[in-house]
Design goal:
InterPro entries: DUF7288. It holds the Pfam family DUF7288. The protein is an alpha+beta fold. It has 6 helices and 6 strands.
């Protein structure tokens, strides 16, 4: 009788283990605590980068605002050592604090990144263009954004800035020009 009881207990234990293993699917692509931790680290790192770039001293523009003001509508891609224009390989991205900080922090850690500028167009709809593009992000990508206020004084000649970037003056009756949302996407390669 004790032997039969032991066999039944063993079968029940094996059944519970088989059921537990079959009920959970563990694959290499399954999100785990480690992936969540890495995503949280990338989110914090990206937010810190944008916060550092958006710091404005008294009567000075932030580095992020300077990058938006100096942008001429060109899309850049990473070519292993520098950011090169998608249209002309002779044109590289220089004098960009955003490119410098990404090259210093993200690239050595194997973190791919895209940067898009988003704004409200003449019709009141959201428009977006890539500033730095490195491919399609993975499912575990994180998105961080920071808004940059532009005034008519910031962009200088409104028509030239609009022709180059596509960012319009949304309020002609005031000094307000537009708000550009700098959206950075980070993911592990």
């Amino acid at each position: 009788m004790h032997t039969l009881e032991a066999v039944m207990a063993a079968l029940i234990m094996i059944g519970v283990i088989v059921f537990a293993v079959e009920a959970t699917s563990l694959t290499p692509l399954t999100s785990s605590t480690a992936n969540a931790h890495i995503e949280a680290q990338m989110q914090t790192m990206g937010q810190d980068m944008l916060n550092a770039l958006s710091y404005e001293g008294y009567d000075h523009d932030s580095a992020l605002k300077k990058d938006v003001k100096n942008w001429d509508g060109t899309e850049f891609v990473w070519e292993g050592s520098s950011y090169v224009s998608r249209d002309s390989s002779n044109l590289t991205l220089t004098n960009s604090s955003l490119a410098d900080i990404l090259n210093f922090i993200a690239t050595p850690r194997g973190i791919a990144h895209n940067v898009h500028f988003t704004w409200i167009d003449d019709n009141g709809l959201t428009a977006s263009r890539p500033y730095i593009y490195n491919g399609d992000p993975s499912d575990n990508a994180v998105i961080i954004s920071k808004k940059v206020y532009l005034s008519n004084y910031d962009v200088g000649s409104n028509s030239t800035f609009y022709i180059n970037t596509g960012i319009p003056d949304v309020d002609n009756s005031s000094n307000f020009y537009n708000i550009v949302n700098v959206k950075m996407t980070l993911w592990r390669m």
